[in-house]
Amino acid sequence: MFKEFKEFALKGNIMDLAVGVIIGGAFQKIVNSLVNDIIMPVIAIFTGKVDFSELTVKVGESSIKYGSFITAIVNFLIIAFSIFLVIRYMNKLNKKLEKIKQEEIEKLKKKGRFGIRKIDKEVEPETTPTTKICPYCFTEISIKATINRRKTDTR
Predict the structure, then answer these.
(1) Which pTM does this prediction carry?
(2) What are phi and psi of 148, to 5 degrees?
(3) Residue 8 and residue 2: Cα distance in Å, rounded?
(4) What are the pLDDT digits (tens) for 110-129?
């Protein structure tokens, strides 16, 4: 069971996911700092309050913390926009790479070299068979052998 878990955990996709989660956590800290230390103070210039997390509405005994919700929305929008920009850039790169690949294929087709692969080891040329198995006596005979089908006299 441990061996199976080790194989599962060390697969490329799992490791990529783990790296993504770690980088995402670090990125979230950067975005939180950006929102709390830069963006919210700028917004506070217009609203008069720096700490949005303190903004609440009391309904009876409970309080609705809409300030924390606004901060979370700003964090989400910044992260979502950043991911959008990265994916957009990656898609542009993939399109360029695909275009380059297609151009290379077209060049090879024009030169008549498309589909030709270099073979490292020498391939023996096929030889035509010189013998065959006789369907009557099952012995090996010449490929040119035929049966004499003349009727013989039975006197």
Answers:
(1) 0.49
(2) -85, 110
(3) 10
(4) 777 655 555 555 556 677 88
